[in-house]
Specification:
The structure holds two protein chains of two kinds. By secondary structure, chain A is mainly β. Chain A is built from no helices and twelve strands. In chain A, the strands form three sheets. In chain A, strands 2, 5, 6, 10, 11 and 12 form a six-stranded mixed β-sheet that branches. Chain A has a four-stranded antiparallel β-sheet with strand order 3-9-8-7, with no helix packed on it. In chain A, strands 1-4 form a two-stranded antiparallel sheet. In chain A, a hairpin with a 6-residue loop joins strand 5 and strand 6. By secondary structure, chain B is an all-beta fold. In chain B, 38% of the residues are buried. Chain B is built from no helices and eleven strands. In chain B, the strands form two sheets. In chain B, strands 2, 4, 5, 6, 9, 10 and 11 form a seven-stranded mixed β-sheet that branches. A four-stranded antiparallel β-sheet of chain B has the order 1-3-8-7, with no helix packed on it. The interface between A and B is medium-sized, with 26 and 26 residues.
């Protein structure tokens, strides 16, 4: 069965600290997609990254980086030199696009990140 | 490019009343989703449309929830009669195709049932 686990419910850091948000997923499919979304207080889910199961290269985008490890079924997200504007709820999600599946997103419970000045 | 538009942003109703939410997806996006997000939880899919056909409504409480996408563009989600446990954010999202593409979300419609 599909499942996404974000074990960290809340994380609090001081500005400029690095922080890593953990995501562990379960799937029986060999083809799948993983996503990270950011949800600020306004409520909109902002797309951050999509990674397919055949691409295990780590990705860096500015202060954001993602570490995808199929061996441990993890897709962790690191923010370097955190800023107050990074404060939000972050969701990891899984999609299985194979025939018979609808491709819908299965979300984790979310991790609330608070960055203090 | 305009994002996913939703209205109203906020709604407060009494239990047993009805409410409707509207969504306009990103232009050219064939797939439209309605997700329900209860406070403190991740979003959960209610219904998924491919053009104007329903692909997945397995978690839609059909005794009180209904949704349509008549012309394959805009969509409306209705709740009648509302219950206290329907208090949540209703997120509309869209994607170019059903699988393998990024899903973009609107700002959500916040519903409080009192």
């Amino acid at each position: 069965a599909q499942k996404v686990t974000q074990a960290q419910t809340e994380i609090s850091v001081v500005e400029k600290e690095d922080v890593t948000l953990d995501c562990v997923y379960e799937t029986r499919d060999t083809t799948y997609y993983l996503f990270w979304y950011k949800q600020p207080p306004s409520g909109e889910l902002v797309f951050l990254i999509r990674r397919n199961s055949f691409d295990e290269q780590n990705e860096i985008s500015g202060r954001y980086s993602w570490n995808f490890q199929k061996s441990t079924s993890s897709f962790n997200f690191t923010i370097t030199a955190s800023q107050v504007v990074d404060s939000a709820v972050y969701f990891c999600a899984l999609s299985e696009p194979r025939s018979g599946n609808t491709g819908k997103l299965i979300f984790g419970q979310g991790t609330t990140l608070q960055v203090k000045p | 490019e305009a994002g996913v538009a939703q209205s109203p942003r906020y709604k407060i109703i009494e239990k047993r009343q009805s409410v409707a939410f509207w969504c306009n997806p990103i232009s050219g996006h064939a797939t439209l989703y309605w997700y329900q997000q209860i406070l403190g939880q991740g979003p959960k899919l209610l219904i998924q449309f491919q053009n104007n056909g329903v692909v997945d409504d397995s978690q839609l409480p059909k005794d009180r929830f209904s949704a349509e996408r008549l012309k394959g563009v805009d969509s409306t989600l209705k709740i009648q009669p509302a219950k206290l446990e329907d208090s949540a954010v209703y997120l509309c999202a869209s994607s170019v195709r059903q699988t393998g593409s990024t899903i973009y979300f609107g700002e959500g419609s916040w519903l409080t049932v009192v």
